[in-house]
Amino acid sequence: MQSPPPGQEFVILLVDDRPENIISLEEILTQPGRRFLHAGSGNEALKQVLKNEDIGLIMLDVQMPDMDGFEVAHILKANSKTKDIAIIFVTAISKDEQFALKGFAHGAVDYLHKPLDVNITRAKVNVFERLYFTQSNLARSLAEVERINKQLERFVFIVSHDLKSPLASISMLADLLQADNRIADESSLHENVTIIANAANKLSEMIGSILEYSRKSLSQQTREDVDTHRLVSEIVELLFLPKHFKMVIHDCLPVLHTRKIKLQQVLQNLISNAVKYNDKKEAIIEIGAKDKGNWYEFYVKDNGPGISKKDHARIFHVFEITENETHKDSSTGVGLNLLKILVEEQGGKIWVDSVPGEGSTFYFEWQK
């Protein structure tokens, strides 16, 4: 059995009305990183649980006066603060199925029968210790992810709010230029002003959606039918691609019932990166999707500089950047990590297939 993580201990509450049984059990289970609490009755066991929130396992004798082990387990499992504590019943009575079922119905997770087998007792407690630390680490990881998500949502709200003012100025000036007769007489100039006005309006709608998203919790965020072909077309339109770019949007792109803003963020970033880092005189970018049962597998393919195999995993880690000269000056090492968070929030995954000098294909899964 490995020692617990540094700075952590596994607390075991031993409950038995006979002190010699407690002493014997503690002697069997004692090892570095463990701390033991004692209780000589059901009532005392409940008091110990209330005083110690870090108990990971209760070794509970079934036959005790006043309040037996079944009653203690029933009370603990009825309380939301104590219901997840693992309980092993220690008993000298019947091993038959009916007795065991009664114990499990009252919240036991396992049984040990007296006289105790030392090796079996140690092995079972070791299993529950490992489970306890695994669950504790998972809970901490989930709390950290939640904290990061809240920070990101606050950041998105602040940035989006600050963008509204200059964008409003651009829209107002574009409207004024469209109304100017001198502009109207120059067809190419009028066309360019119209493009600016349309782009400003679409950006304003996007910022409004982002602000709405950042104000709401995940459960409150609106799910809607999203035509991903249209969504990708709008994203591409706002990029104002140079003439040497060829954009291929395949007809296989689906209609999804999902949170639009999150899917838009992923697609927009991948497409923007494919454009930003492309180093070819004839640049080609393809966007498509494959039906994978409960998922759609989207891909953004380019014929850019590519990414070396050793960097395939690194690029999705925060603040990690590749050694590719094309990326060095402009990449912060944050964007793909944020996309990874968004995709994994949906239960999917994101990865890259790339050959240096030939291009990259980024894939991500999105739940139907």
How would you describe this structure to a colleague?
Helices cover 48% and strands 20% of the residues. It is of the alpha/beta class and 368 residues long. The longest helix is centred in the middle third of the chain and has 62 residues. The two termini are 43 Å apart. About 2% of the residues have low confidence.
List keywords for this structure.
Rossmann fold; 368 residues; alpha/beta; 11 helices; single chain; five-stranded mixed beta sheet; five-stranded parallel beta sheet; 12 strands; Heat Shock Protein 90; 3 domains
Summary of the model, kept short:
The chain has 368 residues and is of the alpha/beta class.
Figure out the total of helices: 11
Gap between N and C termini: 43 Å
Poorly predicted regions: 325-333
Give a short account of the largest sheet: 5 strands, parallel
CATH class (first level) name of the largest domain: Alpha Beta
Strand order across the largest sheet: 2-1-3-4-5
Q: Report the portion of residues in β strands.
A: 15-25%
| CATH homologous superfamily classification of the largest domain | Histidine kinase-like ATPase, C-terminal domain
**Can you tell me the CATH topology of the largest domain?**
Heat Shock Protein 90
Order of helices and strands: EHEHEHEHEHHHEHEEHEEHHEE
